[in-house]
Specification:
It is a single chain. The chain is of the alpha/beta class. Helix content is 27%, strand content 29%. A 7-stranded mixed beta sheet has the order 1-2-3-4-5-6-7, covered by helices on one side.
Length: 230
Amino acid sequence: MKKKINLKEYFDAMKIKINDLNIRIFHFNMIQVNTLVCYDETRSGVIVDPGMSSAEEQQMLLNFITKENIDVKFVINTHPHIDHVLGNDFCVKEFNAPLVMHEAGLPIYKNAASHAISFGFPVFHYPKPDLFLSDGEALHFGNQIWKVLYTPGHVDGSICLYDEKNKLVIVGDVLFAGSIGRTDLPTGNFHQLIQSIKEKLLTLEDETLVIPGHAETTTMGKEKMYNPYL
């Protein structure tokens, strides 16, 4: 018998509030990427992995940001795979915000248009990055300070964003609940991915909330205990 979906629980899971940080999770495009809008009481915020592939999804994001009166300071790509960058151009133009990513992902990002066509996505423009993030760098918006963790292995240019104050980490496709990112795509490397996870993520406290690029959230404690890859 198919389990009945509890809509309240489903939509509640798309909203996270820790102290003064708010995170709204959208599931965009056919690959269901987790696009995040993160903002605090100052109304300053960031968009992480804009994956909108249609005008309807673009409008959904715009409506939320307008309603919450969010001043978008950065558009951030955790890595250059096409499902995570489809909405770059819309966000950069609509919110007049700089596009930031790790420079090592640039060779793959430059081929985003051809990747989109091969996956059946609409033809979009992919703007050049305005800033490159480096390992250990601090990213500021509002009252928030996030630390950039360079975590290659899934793909060159993969970064995680660690919020020590609020005990959360945004991991893109590096780590999932009970799994890890795939390594069979260009520049993927299984041993490098495991090394990145062990050196940069498993050192975080057990209660750290993990927000992946797809599917549900988890905690570092659960992954240390139950993830078969670790």
